[in-house]
Amino acid sequence: MPAAQSAERCRISYYNQFEAIKNLIPHNPHMTNMTLYIVDEQYKRMKSYKELKWSEIIREAIAKKLKELEEADCRTYAVKRLGEGEDADELFEF
After folding, report:
1. Which residues of the chain have pLDDT under 70?
2. Where are the domains positioned within the chain?
């Protein structure tokens, strides 16, 4: 078999293997990829807990912080409106 044909067969084989592996990795089109830098010492300690899904832990921490910030914004808004004389019953009516 000529070298060009052999190289082409290898390229196709590797491409097919890559596609098969790529299809095994779940991808959520509603998520954005983000790079995170951490201290080397923290990374070494994290590696000792391989059973944990660190990306999920980080997602939960971000969600918790966002909720805290949004609740603080609501409180600030409410205090400001109450200070302007708005009736509390109307402000918190759902």
Report:
1. 1-29, 88-94
2. 29-91
